[in-house]
Amino acid sequence: MGERRVWVWTETAGDTPHRLSLELLTPARALGRAEAVLLGPAGESALQKLAEHGATIIHHADDPRYTQYLVEPQVATLSALIEAERPDLLLFPSTPGARDVLARLVGRLGVGAIANAVAVDYDPSGRLLATVPCGAETLATVTLEGPPPYLVQIRPKAYAAEAVGGEAEVRMVSVPLDEANCRVRVIETVEQPAAGPNLEDANVIVAGGRGLGRPENFRLLEELANALGGAVGASRAVVDAGWVPYSYQVGQTGRTVKPTLYIACGISGAIQHVAGMRGSRYVIAINRDPDAPIFELADLGVVGDVLTIVPKLTERIAAR
Ligand SMILES: Cc1cc2nc3c(=O)[nH]c(=O)nc-3n(C[C@H](O)[C@H](O)[C@H](O)COP(=O)(O)OP(=O)(O)OC[C@H]3O[C@@H](n4cnc5c(N)ncnc54)[C@H](O)[C@@H]3O)c2cc1C
């Protein structure tokens, strides 16, 4: 058997590859020959960055319609490429766009896919193994039956992006783009301004839940986060209540974060919340209910009123 071909679905943010796609080049390199697929305009620096992170081949198409229209043209071209080249494994980042592409590929190609994986590997017999969290405490190892290609979507920060240096051959994709697939046009994109560091990049996250009582009390978390150089996150309960924007939400239907320190303030610790922050190195929980599930996972638990404890903590940290 020749070297495995592992493709990484690449999205770009501005003129740089999305950080989550760069992360996936790390397992791709470990499992075989890492190749990137990038559909849409991209500058030399984006291609260079992919090469630096270990892509040896970049399948690239620079037609602007790939980004002017939602996923259909990308899916049509990617499935034609897969049929023609038969890669062994495709890795997708956990972005909304990649989720959409993955689901449509499953329908088009009739193959299975694994979503939400935190690790991917092959066993000595060549069987694909992916590790997937099932709830807060359990990790399952799953595989895909049948012949490749296998499709696996990986969670953020499951792997670290590594600039290993290197050169890549850029192969321009020759699949013609069919106008019939250009049906859903992007009219406008609006970036929601976020204060403080991006949640996914933050080393410290101070997250708040319904225990804060009122939206105005999020100010206390902002002050603590500022003192620690961190970002503010939230549970879905308070996002649904309109206290903070969706961009703050941590959990199964929000962001997956992996900071060094996660301070959960007035958050009960529902499994859907824990799914998004269980990878945090240290967890401090402040909750007035000593039986709150969040304490099962916390390295340090403080039983008490978050509205009293957080300002004191901020004061002490700011005084240092
Ligand atoms: C399909 C699905 C997806 C979901 N996705 C997500 C998701 O992505 N993220 C997410 O967070 N949730 C998600 N949820 C919702 C989740 O199940 C919980 O409802 C939610 O996480 C609860 O938020 P909370 O902890 O803020 O509120 P609560 O569960 O109401 O907990 C509030 C906590 O605050 C404590 N408290 C109250 N007052 C104080 C005080 N003064 N001081 C200290 N502590 C206090 C209470 O003891 C309690 O533990 C999802 C649910 C479903 C069904």
Describe the structure.
With 320 residues, the protein is an alpha/beta fold. It folds into two domains: 5-181, HUPs (Rossmann fold), CATH 3.40.50; 204-318, 3-Layer(aba) Sandwich (Rossmann fold), CATH 3.40.50. It is 29% helix and 25% strand. The chain has ten helices and 17 strands. The strands form four sheets. A seven-stranded parallel beta sheet has the order 7-11-6-1-4-5-12, with helices on both faces. Helix 8 (271-277) links the parallel strand 15 and strand 16. The radius of gyration is 21 Å and the shape is elongated. The model has no long low-confidence stretch (mean pLDDT 93). The structure holds flavin-adenine dinucleotide. Flavin-adenine dinucleotide is lined by residues 209-211, 235-238, 249-254, 266-268, 270, 272-273, 276, 286-289, 292, 305-307.
Task: Outline the secondary-structure elements.
Blueprint: E1 5-9, E2 12-13, E3 16-17, H1 19-31, E4 33-39, H2 44-52, E5 57-61, H3 65-68, H4 72-85, E6 89-93, H5 96-109, E7 113-117, E8 119-122, E9 128-134, E10 138-142, E11 150-154, E12 169-172, E13 204-208, H6 218-228, E14 231-234, H7 236-240, E15 261-265, H8 271-277, E16 282-287, H9 294-297, E17 300-303, H10 306-318
Parallel strand pairs: 1-4, 1-6, 4-5, 5-12, 6-11, 7-11, 13-14, 13-15, 15-16, 16-17
Antiparallel strand pairs: 2-3, 8-9, 9-10
Helix pairs in contact: 4-5, 6-10
Bound molecules: flavin-adenine dinucleotide (FAD).
Residues 209-211, 235-238, 249-254, 266-268, 270, 272-273, 276, 286-289, 292, 305-307 line the site of flavin-adenine dinucleotide (FAD).
Pfam family, one: ETF
Function: The electron transfer flavoprotein serves as a specific electron acceptor for other dehydrogenases. It transfers the electrons to the main respiratory chain via ETF-ubiquinone oxidoreductase (ETF dehydrogenase).
InterPro entries: DHS-like_NAD/FAD-binding_dom, ETF_a/b_N, ETF_a/FixB, ETF_asu_C, ETF_asu_C_CS, Rossmann-like_a/b/a_fold
